[in-house]
């Protein structure tokens, strides 16, 4: 006699039962490190760092302004807890222009066919540097479980997934150094997939000499660097939005403690006159040796975790 299996039903939950107000409830929820990561995953992006909420654009305010740590370019998020309307379509274009954003994400409870077509049209007529996304959000629950959010991407750049994959799969037209970078980071991503960290995630491999690791803090991330000419690997706390040196000057007070807790002598670079400032540690090695690469990957993982553990709580207090 077959055993009957009891299954629960999935039910939808009204968004307003969780977030009564967009600005005071939904926007802060989405801007948290955990939830912005959920959105990034749904979009096929590796990381998003929140720079600000309710960012002023002239007399207006954009909901969330993020940075793609891989490019340091702005990502604009505009949300509404109802179906899309013409006002919000105008707002995202106004905000994108005012903030010089290259990726625009419009989140709503439901997209009308007209507004979905508008996002598709914007993706067709704009340069490949610009990306427009339409995302529907819903809350679901199974039986008596707590409600869970789901981001459903209903409009995205033409060939988004295909373009991302193809840009990473062909070495044609790239210099020997660029190919080395790509193969190196590909091996590092494989290493991290086999030895995952609870504190950070890697981006996809690229041809750049650096890989950014998001910390969930606007204006700050960790950069892993390669210097093939000098045969040097670097881990760097990169404060790219620190023109007034507020973050650097607050952290330098902990210089001795940082060296002690991280277990290395760090190089502190205020970089006066520049927007950025950095805190670095280096490792001289034969980057081309496969056995040495595994040692470097382990070093990257270990000390990136130490950087995050030590510096992240301090920066959040600043």
First-to-last CA distance: 65 Å
The unreliable regions are 161-169
- Shape designation: globular
Q: Quickly count the helices.
A: 9
Q: Which bin fits the share of residues in helices? A: 25-40%
Assembly status: single chain
Radius of gyration equals: 22 Å
Overview of this structure, please?
This protein is an alpha+beta fold and 318 residues long. 37% of the residues lie in helices and 28% in strands. The protein contains nine helices and twelve strands. The strands form two sheets. Strands 1, 2, 3, 4, 5, 6 and 7 form a seven-stranded mixed beta sheet that branches. Strands 8-9-10-12-11 form a five-stranded antiparallel beta sheet, covered by helices on one side. A hairpin with a 5-residue loop joins strand 6 (131-142) and strand 7. The protein is globular, with a radius of gyration of 22 Å.
Summarize this, please?
The protein is an alpha+beta fold. Helices cover 37% and strands 28% of the residues.
């Amino acid at each position: 006699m077959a055993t009957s299996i009891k299954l629960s039903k999935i039910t939808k939950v009204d968004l307003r039962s969780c977030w009564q107000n967009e600005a005071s409830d939904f926007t802060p929820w989405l801007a948290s490190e955990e939830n912005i990561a959920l959105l990034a995953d749904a979009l096929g992006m590796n990381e998003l760092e929140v720079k600000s909420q309710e960012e002023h654009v002239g007399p207006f305010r954009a909901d969330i302004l993020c940075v793609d740590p891989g490019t340091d370019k702005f990502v604009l998020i505009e949300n509404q807890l109802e179906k899309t309307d013409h006002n919000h379509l105008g707002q995202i274009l106004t905000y994108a222009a005012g903030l010089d954003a290259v990726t625009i994400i419009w989140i709503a409870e439901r997209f009308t066919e007209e507004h979905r077509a508008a996002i598709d049209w914007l993706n067709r007529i704009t340069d490949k540097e610009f990306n427009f996304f339409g995302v529907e959000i819903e809350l679901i629950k199974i039986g008596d479980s707590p409600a869970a959010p789901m981001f459903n991407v209903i409009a995205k750049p033409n060939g988004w997934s295909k373009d991302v994959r193809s840009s990473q799969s062909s070495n044609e037209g790239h210099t020997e150094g660029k190919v080395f970078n790509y193969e190196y980071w590909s091996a590092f991503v494989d290493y991290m997939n086999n030895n995952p960290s609870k504190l950070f995630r890697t981006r996809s491999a690229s041809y750049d000499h650096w890989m950014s690791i998001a910390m969930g803090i606007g204006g700050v991330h960790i950069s892993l660097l390669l210097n093939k000419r000098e045969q040097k690997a670097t881990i760097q706390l990169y404060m790219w939005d620190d023109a007034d040196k507020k973050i650097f000057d607050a952290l330098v007070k902990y210089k001795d403690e940082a060296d002690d807790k991280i277990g290395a002598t760090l190089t502190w670079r205020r970089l006066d006159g520049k927007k950025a400032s950095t805190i670095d540690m280096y490792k001289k090695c034969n980057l081309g040796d496969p056995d040495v690469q595994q040692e470097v990957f382990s070093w990257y993982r270990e000390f990136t975790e130490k950087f995050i553990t030590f510096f992240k709580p301090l920066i959040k207090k600043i």
